[in-house]
Amino acid sequence: MSETKYLETHEWYIVDGDNVTVGISDYAQGELGDIVFVTLPEVGQEFNKGDAIVEVEATKTVAEAYAPMNCVITEVNSNLETEPELINNDPVGEGWMVKAEIKEMDDSGMSYQQYESFIS
Amino acid sequence: MSESKTTSLYDFHLSKNAKVIDFAGWSMPFSYDGTLKEHHYVRESAGYFDVSHMGRLRLNYSQIEEINYLICSDLKNISNTKALYSIFTSEDGTAIDDVIFWKFEDDLILICNASNTNKIKTHLDIHSINYEDLTMNTDLIAVQGKNAIDIVSNIMSVPNKFSTSKEGKYVYARTGYTGEDGLEVMVDINDTLGFISELEAKGVKPCGLGSRDTLRLEASLPLYGFELTDDISPIEAGLKWTVTNKDEYLGKDVIDHQIESKEHKHLKRFKLNAKQIARTGTICVSDGVEGIVTSGNISPILGYPIGFVLFKSNPADDLVEFDIRGNLIEGNLLYKRFLS
Questions:
Q1: B223 within a domain of the structure (yes/no)
Q2: DSSP assignment of A76-102, as one string?
């Protein structure tokens, strides 16, 4: 498994061979406040880099998580349907959103250090 | 832009790791432990809110006739220890501000929205009503919740609901903005921290403006700037119950005509059976009548999205279709309050 990378739109992703896992950063969940609803995609749905994959409704505002690269959804974290607060409590662990098969590798995300200086 | 104003508790909020936001020109705590947690503190036990950004003006009892002419409610004939929710109306019958009066034997305290304090002061000036602005010398702390009255009764004597009291360093009323019982307490800025430590020692938790908003929405209470504006009358906002002024008052003709004709905008409550929140500005249609959402959020207690929508006229149907980011989402208008 490669290191966790971050996007300027505040998603994180981890590449593992042909697959990628995607969620939103700790900073993003903190900015959104309490997350109350998560709308996940269907398994098999195809996305291009930059497409909105997940919609997150929080008490403060609504946000979308975008695809870090071209991919096809293979698994969604259905626990988020009943426990959206997992994203607040553990954004880069239990709060993962989708797993997908990579169609076109794009590993241009920032390292954690780069992301930290990006948000500060 | 001028610097944001701060209440005397600003450093205290920072010491509590509050998330601070700018609200109506004030730096105010948005949340401490998180909006949902704070919402539940109030519904299940008790919380306190720093609402010192709201304007506090002391008015002379001798000018009660003149004041009564500017509001749609009867302030004159209620007894001297009552608190009154009312609305300053314009000539056109629209809302200049929604406010609370604390009526005492010797004076009146007027509490107005932070965003409207200057507007209200100008309005009072125009009508030659004298006031003393207490906003910067005092704080206003709202203690709200299921157990709030039990807890504060150890600190001060508790008046009846919607009644006022003065005791020692506290001037207060049994009012609130959360749908729960509680007190709103005005206290000199030098005594606020002492009062708050007493509350905290009794387990009352700090709550921010985030939960204040979800609580008031769930309790079906309007917020000026959203459900009430310079363009919306008390009747249109569903606040006909506040129109108790039998005398002549500013905007009376328009308001009387609206009551009689029912030809006016209509504010309605709605709920969605969806995982989308219809937020402020969302467009919708019911029975061919166009509407716009004034406030929307999740109801933490009910677990589904709720809100207020303002229609151009009264829709005959309870089904309503919202355009949420290009998706049409169905909802229902409600004729009762959100929480029973």
A1: no
A2: E-THHHH-TTHHHH-TTTTT--EEEEE
pLDDT attached to residue B82: 97
DSSP letter (8 states) at residue B280 = T
Contact A59 B275 (CB under 8 A): no
- The topology under which CATH files domain A5-105 is OB fold (Dihydrolipoamide Acetyltransferase, E2P) (2.40.50)
Both B196 and B74 in one domain: the answer is: no
Q: How far away is chain A from the Cα of B181, in angstroms, using its nearest Cα?
A: 24
- Structural domain span for residue B28: 10-52+135-218
Question: Cβ distance A41 to A73 under 8 Å?
Answer: yes
Contact B277 A62 (CB under 8 A): yes
Substitution target from A27, A29, A35, A36 for chain B, most B beta carbons within 10 A: A36
Task: Give the ipTM.
Answer: 0.89
Q: E-assigned strands of A1-120?
A: 5-6, 11-16, 19-24, 35-39, 46-47, 52-58, 62-66, 70-76, 98-104
Q: Which helix (H) or strand (E) holds B86?
A: strand B83-89
In a domain, B45, yes or no: yes
Which CATH number do you get for residue B297? 2.40.30.110
Angle CA(B88)–CA(B91)–CA(B97) in degrees, nearest 5? Answer: 20
Torsion, CA B318, CA B323, CA B324, CA B328, rounded to 10? 80
Q: Tell me if B202 is assigned to some domain.
A: yes
Confidence of residue B2 (pLDDT cuts 50, 70, 90): low
Q: Do both B194 and B149 map to the same domain?
A: yes
CB B68 within 8 A of CB B245: yes
Nearest to B23 by CA among B46, B45, B52: B52
Confidence of residue B340 (pLDDT cuts 50, 70, 90): confident
**Stated length of chain A:** 120
